[in-house]
Amino acid sequence: MTPLDLDANATEPLRPEARDALLRALATGGNPSSVHGGGRAARRILEEARRAVAGRFGGEVVFTSGGTEANALALHALSPGRRVLLGATEHAAVRAAAPQGASALPVHGDGTLDLAALEAALRGGPPALVCAMAANNETGVLHPLAEVAALCRSHGALLHVDAVQAARLSAELPGNTLALSGHKLGGPPGAGALVLRGGLALTPLIPGGGQEQGRRGGTEALPAIAGLAAALLAPYDAPRLASLRDAVEAALGEGVVIAGKDAPRLPNTVLAVLPGVAAETVVIALDLAGVRVSAGAACSSGKVARSHVLEAMGFGEDAGSGIRLSLPWNAPDDAPERFRRAWEGVRARLSSRRPALAT
Amino acid sequence: MRVLVAMSGGVDSSVVAALLTEQGHEVIGATLQLYDHGAAIQKKGACCAGQDIRDARDVADGLGIPHYVLDRETRFRQAVIEDFADSYARGETPIPCIRCNQTVKFQDLTALAEDLGCEALATGHYAQRLDGPDGSPELHRAADPVRDQSYFLAHTTRDQLSRVLFPLGGLTSKAEVRAHAARLGVPVAEKPDSQDICFVPEGRYDALVGKLRPEALEPGEIVDESGAVLGTHRGIARYTVGQGRGLGVSAAERLFVTALDPARRRVVVGHRADLPVEEVALGEVNWLIAPPEGAFRCEAKLRGREQPQPATATWDGTTLHLRPDSPAVAAPGQAAVLYDGSRVLAGGFIRRRAVDRAGRAA
């Protein structure tokens, strides 16, 4: 039986629209910077993709190698001369790119940004750069970005939004800059974008040959970029995924805590906390049972670490006990049922030594 | 059956994974990440460096089996590294590889195996797990005496042992392992055998101990068995019972450490003839047989690199009193393992003897 993919937030399966666009761009070939006809053909594809992204979010679009680079570029360009304030649950791509001395903004127990704390931090002091993710990659929790943006405006702060997980959900994302990633949308890996609004100047992170109007050097990864744009425009059936998500949550049963359950969330994401059980054990057991999930956070060696997101939400000891189930855009209708069957077997074994899990 | 194989990245556990796969079992590979190797400095010869994790993963990929890296840094720090420093501070000479086997390896991995629906945990250790006449598991020395690791496994509980496989324990030579490796396509990187303490870079354990238990590196007096002060030492953690070098005291006859007295931060020295003791007390005893009532004969091994010596043992319910036929040198903190021929009967840790006010070991 084919494994059940519940790890879309790691990477979405390639969407057919993206695949077509990718193949067309591959067939076209060429370097968008070339003067000749081949360059023009490549440039047409590139600018079409740029218009597609800009058309959705407004502003100018700088293509990058991915979400991590887009976030790093925003921080590199916007942080000089500003205090950097970032949400405690931001992705490592943002946290690691933040300058030393950046302060973490607390989140509530449901994972949403503490607006009172943001306002207090913004009041007084030199101008700030606030980094707030649109949707958390582990919990799917959406920050109240409209309120965050209003606070930033009234205090003269810039707002960078890591929109990597939320870009499909809404075109109404505020922020002076937005970071996007192709493969989180169902495009191929290798392309991302930074959306710039309000004529913001940008010093490049990678200088190079003047591509992207001098804002990001290096020949554009045209096929991946074309795939990103196509994936962004592809229809995303959020209500269907939300109902599958609810069914998956119901299948988890008693004794499992859903992080941020009552907060606004992505339609496809569940972070299930199993008190007293190492997330790693559950991820492995489900893998062996043909269900692909992840722990809240995993480093490149594959080892499972405690989740800084759950820690920030006050889960304490249980910050190492969260497993993330994220439905892909093409999740089959029987995904919750297939998950339930696998989970019941795993749960029965785990509960033999952990009475709290027995139902 | 489904088997969890603890893969270190070395040839032994790689061959175990390959053999079990060849036999048609559903093999799941797991490699422990025990500490941040960046912080612990790249060193050769010790187990568990970052390269070893990648090697284990490559072997698993080659075999087409799933493989997982298990983050055990916190557990290892608490169960092994802190215990290591605490033991020195108590005036003992710890044996961290046994602590690691006891906790991070066999206790945790047999539990994980159960959680994953595995019938057994297999490792590349050289020891034999045999089934006794009543079906209960027995631990025996490896068929190859040179490679025998039963001393390091004697603290495995009977319950753990019932779910453990040592597929290499019956092999009689290193050449056999290499032949299996060659046949099964397991790469045999020329790696030195692990002998050092894996988490101690360059054998410099004092810096680590000093960080965790600074009092163990504070200077104090070197006294003889009558309590007379002969000199000063640089911290009791730098000394072990039986040590005859590096004491920095001059005497007509060579002196040896006979006891460590952490309460008064003293190193007690004496003559070679003062070292052997008539009786050794063992605590934290793990029985692999039903504990005999009354005195019983056995062979006892009091350190990793010695042959078991005949002895008489008595169990009083909490302490195992061991009387070697010939008085023996016993370093507190080290493991003692009791054998009956090839069979392991019990394992324990050598207890520190009480030291009287004069500094004399009672």
UniProtKB/TrEMBL annotation, chain A:
UniProt keyword Transferase present: yes
UniProt keyword annotation of Iron-sulfur present: yes
Record-level Gene Ontology MF annotations: transaminase activity
Family the UniProt entry places it in: Belongs to the class-V pyridoxal-phosphate-dependent aminotransferase family. NifS/IscS subfamily.
Record-annotated Aminotransferase class V domain positions: 6-327
UniProt xrefs under Pfam families: Aminotran_5 (PF00266)
Names of required cofactors: pyridoxal 5'-phosphate
SUPFAM superfamilies (alphabetical): PLP-dependent transferases (SSF53383)
Function: Catalyzes the removal of elemental sulfur atoms from cysteine to produce alanine. Seems to participate in the biosynthesis of the nitrogenase metalloclusters by providing the inorganic sulfur required for the Fe-S core formation.
Reactions catalysed, as given in the entry: (sulfur carrier)-H + L-cysteine = (sulfur carrier)-SH + L-alanine
PANTHER family with a match to the protein in the record: CYSTEINE DESULFURASE, CYSTEINE DESULFURYLASE FAMILY MEMBER
Keywords: Aminotransferase, Iron, Iron-sulfur, Metal-binding, Pyridoxal phosphate, Transferase
Protein name per its UniProtKB record: Cysteine desulfurase
InterPro entries registered for this protein in UniProt: Aminotrans_V_dom (IPR000192), Cysteine_dSase (IPR016454), PyrdxlP-dep_Trfase (IPR015424), PyrdxlP-dep_Trfase_major (IPR015421), PyrdxlP-dep_Trfase_small (IPR015422)
Species this protein is from: Sabulicella glaciei
TrEMBL record, chain B:
Domain spans labelled tRNA-specific 2-thiouridylase MnmA-like C-terminal: 279-350
One Pfam family linked to the record: tRNA_Me_trans_M
Active site: 100, 198
Stretch list, region Interaction with tRNA: 147-149
Occurrences of domain tRNA-specific 2-thiouridylase MnmA-like central (ranges): 218-271
Catalytic activity of the protein: S-sulfanyl-L-cysteinyl-[protein] + uridine(34) in tRNA + AH2 + ATP = 2-thiouridine(34) in tRNA + L-cysteinyl-[protein] + A + AMP + diphosphate + H(+)
EC number annotated for this UniProt entry: 2.8.1.13
HAMAP family (UniProt xref): tRNA_thiouridyl_MnmA
Listed PANTHER family: MITOCHONDRIAL TRNA-SPECIFIC 2-THIOURIDYLASE 1 (PTHR11933:SF5), TRNA 5-METHYLAMINOMETHYL-2-THIOURIDYLATE -METHYLTRANSFERASE (PTHR11933)
Family affiliation: Belongs to the MnmA/TRMU family.
Protein's UniProt name: tRNA-specific 2-thiouridylase MnmA
Species this protein is from: Sabulicella glaciei
